[in-house]
Amino acid sequence: MAYAMGALMWKTSDQPANVDEKCAGVLGAAMFYAKVGDAAIVYTGDYNMTPDRHLGAAQIDRLQLDLVITESTYATTFRDSKYAREREFLEAVHKCVASGGKVLIPTFALGRAQELCMLLDDYWERMNLKAPIYFAAGLTIQANLYYKVLINWTSQKVKSTSATRNAFDFKNVHSFDRSTINAPGPCVLFATPGMISGGFSLEVFKQWAPCGQNLITLPGYCVAGTVGHRLMSAKTPAKINVDENTQIDVRCQIHQLSFSPHTDAKGIMDLVKFLSPKHVILVHGEKPKMALLKKGIELDFGIPCYYPANNETVCIPSSLYVKADASREFLKSSLSPNFKFLNTSSRADIDLILNERTESFVQVCDDRVAEGVLTMQKNQHPKIVHQNELLVMVGGENHEVQFAYCCPVRVSDECKDVAPSPGENTPPVFDKCPWLHLLYTKLSNDFQDVTYQNDGDRLQIESFTVSVCLKEKCPHRTHVSPDSTSETVNFCCVWSMVDEKLAWRVISIMKNLELRTR
Prior knowledge:
- With 518 residues, the protein is α/β, with parallel strands linked by helices.
- The protein folds into four domains: 6-79 and 261-321, Metallo-beta-lactamase, Chain A (4-Layer Sandwich), CATH 3.60.15; 82-256, Rossmann fold; 323-341 and 361-399, no CATH class; 402-416 and 427-515, TATA-Binding Protein (2-Layer Sandwich).
- Helices cover 27% and strands 22% of the residues.
- The chain has 14 helices and 25 strands.
- The strands form six sheets. A six-stranded mixed beta sheet has the order 1-2-3-4-13-14, covered by helices on one side. Strands 7-6-8-5-9-12 form a six-stranded parallel beta sheet, sandwiched between helices.
- Helix 7 (265-275) packs across helix 8 (287-301).
- The longest helix has 17 residues, at 82-98.
- It is elongated.
């Protein structure tokens, strides 16, 4: 899961997730996967997407996540080749000890100390160098013991050679005797803490920094305000304030190179792309750099990203899936076909070659939609039922809301003599009154993807019905022009709510029509 040995996946369900930010250690570091109900998150801790000498790259399963909380220490850093950095580091150390200088490598006890010890031990063997390499006693010695015991948690390369030689049995690295801190001769010393914020690394720094022959190499990240951070921006010779009462005249060489276990900006982007969560929160970084990374994530992946300050609350919406049963009647209704007939034209290649004849055909599609009602009753599973079943369940009656509108349609002069007389009670049919037939002809050209039904008295499209209105004062007629009896024919239109959009599309076309017999 994570870059370190003993990587774990911790999962909890149906209970609040308690994610510990201290999972950012190296030995046994882990990414935490927490799931409560349908909401799932991953908290990364510190991780590295690039394999190194003793540990592999971070690995995690592809998950359906609402949120990823990721560290962003190097939010804007894009590292160069690891081999180029190693070569530069080895050349700087070799040059210093060859000239008789001492090399101080401030580092933390876990992870980077073992990585750099392996690198220098191998280089010393190949170059047959005699200058001693030391690491300060304490946590580093204990950490090495765990690395030796837990060899199966390391990289594949280290495991493959463990049968012949344990990679953490260093031939050229020894424990350091503090009494020899000012002993003459070149040497390399690993000392903690890595940021020279106190402890033994600060003590050695005070002794070795004034000598221009010595070298201090900073392999990792240093927090602002620490001595290590001041050295990163210093140009020797310089005076560095260690505390309020102590100032060190720094004349030694300063070499900064990133061997941090934290992933860089590319690694963070790769992880976000792989997991593709619905939201991302950036933590453990510098605010200006996190702001730039946030823009990159939102621009490249379209994922909302946040970088809240300490004690700031961020609300992340999550998905909720409800498992429901389905009634037999609902399932039967969803299986009923809903055919749509579409008149289309196709110009066949052979017709195009012979006589350019256009061939018409009817395209049939099944526009099937299942509509149901989700019911939730006490002590019962949620259930989707047909709307007719719901009325029975609640003891109600079926009420349908319908809309009506009396629409005037213009007619041409040649059609005026066939207009029906006002007040005529006989329903019009196509052979007695051509209006409905003429309207059908006009509408069928504009609505080729719907099914029409007509019985002579009315024309129906879905729930929308239209018929000739012979009433002098129709309650659904909103506008009556003075000459409407001679220039227009009124059609009563009735429809239900589900076809409201369709109805107004038809009515808008009818208002702009002019009926002609030819």
